[in-house]
Amino acid sequence: MKSISLTKGLDVPIAGSPELTVTSSKTVRHVALIGDDYPGMKPTMLVKVGDKVRAGQPLFEDKKSPGVFFTAPGSGEIAAINRGKKRKFESIIIELNNEDPLNFCNPESNPAELGAGVLRDIIIKSGLWTSFRTRPYGKVPSIDTNPASLFITAMDTTPLAPDLEGIIDLGRNDFLIGINALQSFVETANIFICTAPEQQALTEEPPGTKLVSFGGPHPAGLPSTHIHFLDPVNESKTVWHIEAQDVIGIGFLLRTGRIPMEKIIALSGSGVTNPRHIRTRIGASLRELCVDETTGEDLRVLSGSVLDGREACDMLAYLGRYHQQLCCIPEGTGRQFFGWLRPGNDRFSVTRAFLSSFLKPSNMVLDTAVWGGDRAIFPLGTYEKVMPLDVEPIYLLKSLASGNTEKAKALGCLELVEEDLALCSYVCPGKNDFGRLLRQTLTSIETDG
Description:
- The protein is α/β, with parallel strands linked by helices.
- The protein folds into two domains: 2-256, no CATH class; 382-448, no CATH class.
- Helices cover 23% and strands 21% of the residues.
- Strands 1-13-12-11-14-10 form a six-stranded mixed beta sheet. Strands 2-16-15-19-17-18 form a six-stranded mixed beta sheet, with no helix packed on it.
- Strand 15 (262-268) and strand 16 (276-281) form a beta hairpin.
- Helix 3 (172-185) packs across helix 5.
- It is globular.
């Protein structure tokens, strides 16, 4: 097994890591699909409010990528279809009322005997095609394309991340079925399984795959990091990646004939009374999941990581399609009275501005206060400390901020998506949202070249 060790990056020492136990969550009554989970997608609605739907039934099709269907994560009634400014699709919400999923294949059939075309058709019709995402651009691929390589992400280094080793161990049989299926219809591609160095869930390479371990601080567990070191992309070369739990989901589909409706996530953060792993519905309502689970303080609830997660508010208060965490952290109260006189033992910084830089606590109760303001991008060396990829971060970030797409492309922006610049935003003195700037640049490059 090949091993790659990174020295650059940052593990944020935030309190609230989940225990390794997995419990069932409370029953949720609502699930949803969120438009922001699918960059560039334009939906053609196939249902309306009040329609009865079954799990696996198509809800809408991507107008820009015909044949890519987004299916219901549960059976029930369409409660709302929410749109924002300029009719932008925000979310579609289902009120669950029964368990009557569609069947997509014969559970008694052997996946190895189905053939590449049949397997691809099953995955497309079930909606699990949306498990794949591309580099460049971080979008769901077209159904008539193939990748140069496929990356299976079997590790997670984000703060308060779930234990993917334990999750894979629980779903080992479906995981192996899923890998065999992927080998069948991406047979011309290399398949890389990227894991943590000391994990025990995968000690041998499944036939036809390459097992690679990545050590070091975050972002060692991000797909873009793996792709950069193993098979870098460019404008004319595309690779795909898929999360380990989605591979388990494909195996579950082929074993049972039904789409997976549950996933294991980390319920974490200092605002949670009992941080742990929970088994819950895909797209579950975060408000319903948080009932009797929080400390009752003024909290911010996030779907996803504290670095780049989405705030649970209004029509977006649901578990993201690719998120594996539900985080609750205290809301920041802003500036402290005579804060400049405080030693800062309770505040974290990558510079040596506070006492915590010398004490190095492993669990700090960090809130949402950004402790920064609008500033120019200065070459202080902080971005370089957290960027392990072979790019020049200061020049890349300046090109993103100025909207210089040609320079950004030359500096490697096509290898990245929003989550890859979350640490740069975190350590930025001006707290610039580099993820948003990157998405604008990627959209411009894809549209205008």
